[in-house]
Amino acid sequence: MPATETAPAEDLALLVAAAREAAQIATGFAAPEIWDKADGQGPVTEADLAVDRMLRDRLGAARPGYGWLSEETSDSPDRLSARRIFIIDPIDGTRAFIEGSRDWAHSLAVAEAGRVIAAAVLLPQRGLLYTAHAGGGAQLNGRAIRASAEADPARATLLGPRLAMSPEHWSGGEVPPVQRAFRSSLAWRLCLLAEGRFDAMLTIRPTWEWDVAAGTLILSEAGGRATDRRGAALAFNRPHPQSDGVLAGGALHPVLLARLADPPPG
């Protein structure tokens, strides 16, 4: 690392402070105004936008050379020339936030050359702060966490939507005998794998980078692995910031990967 470059641990400290400020803003909205995004991209609230503005201002001022990719900011090709980039989901699990559930998160990450090097996921209503920086392990509220060692689908739990358990997505139509559960926030799903509370996660549909960037590092630093649904490594700050689904887990990851059917062409 060049002498003038910020260490990942310093970037992590910045992300944590910003996430805590984001929580103060988001939890201050009792009944936020809600809009539907274009092209069926789901709802957005004035809280999402307020958090996004604050994060863009604060993080941009602290690291003016970093690029910016956020769910709630219009994308710009300028980010592609940045060595480091913030990848942000101001409120991951907006539907849960609207419903008054506690299952939403602030998901903040820094990526360098396609790889996440610092990450923070904060669930304010649950008092959960997941953190990691490259080579530093993963923590939950300052305590080291580790991904599951369970490799038997019959004893395993998988986080994902009902679609993930449809027979057409599995080789020979044979759905593994996992117990399925669901959480609204993709970032939290990855963090739940990192702390070993669940064994795997699967999403079939194309997945935005801001949904999984932070959680991917937290899981990998906890000894787990996240890939796309074909088993390819996830890369970040791509021109089109989506992956072909996500399969993640601890020891169960290669077991499920071997059983997934190839997606249809086109």
Distance between the termini: 41 Å
- Average pLDDT score: 94
CATH superfamily of the largest domain: Fructose-1,6-Bisphosphatase, subunit A, domain 1
Q: Which fold name fills CATH's third level, the topology of the largest domain?
A: Fructose-1,6-Bisphosphatase, Chain A, domain 1
Order of helices and strands: HEEHEEHEEEEEEEHEEHEEEH
Number of domains: 2
* Main sheet attributes: strand count, strand direction, barrel closure: 7 strands, mixed
Strand order of the largest sheet: 3-4-5-6-7-8-9
The residue ranges in which pLDDT falls below 50 over 5 or more consecutive positions are: none
What is the highest CATH level, the class of the largest domain? Alpha Beta
- Strand tally, please? 16
Q: Helical amount among residues, as a percent range?
A: 25-40%
User: Count of helices?
Assistant: 6
Shape: globular
Notes on the structure:
The mean pLDDT is 94. Helix content is 27%, strand content 26%. By secondary structure, it is of the alpha+beta class. The N and C termini lie far apart (41 Å). The chain has 6 helices and 16 strands. β7 (128-133) and β8 (138-140) form a beta hairpin. The protein has helices at residues 8-26, 46-62, 94-99, 186-194, 209-221, 253-259, and strands at residues 34-36, 43-45, 67-70, 84-92, 105-112, 115-123, 128-133, 138-140, 143-144, 157-159, 179-181, 200-203, 207-208, 225-227, 242-243, 246-249. The strands form 4 sheets. The chain has a 7-stranded mixed sheet, with helices on both faces. The chain has a 5-stranded mixed sheet with strand order 11-10-12-16-14, sandwiched between helices. It has 2 domains: 8-144, Fructose-1,6-Bisphosphatase, subunit A, domain 1 (Fructose-1,6-Bisphosphatase, Chain A, domain 1); 153-259, 3-Layer(aba) Sandwich (D-Maltodextrin-Binding Protein, domain 2). This is Myo-inositol-1(Or 4)-monophosphatase. Pfam families: Inositol_P. Its cofactor is Mg(2+). GO terms for molecular function: inositol monophosphate 1-phosphatase activity; metal ion binding.
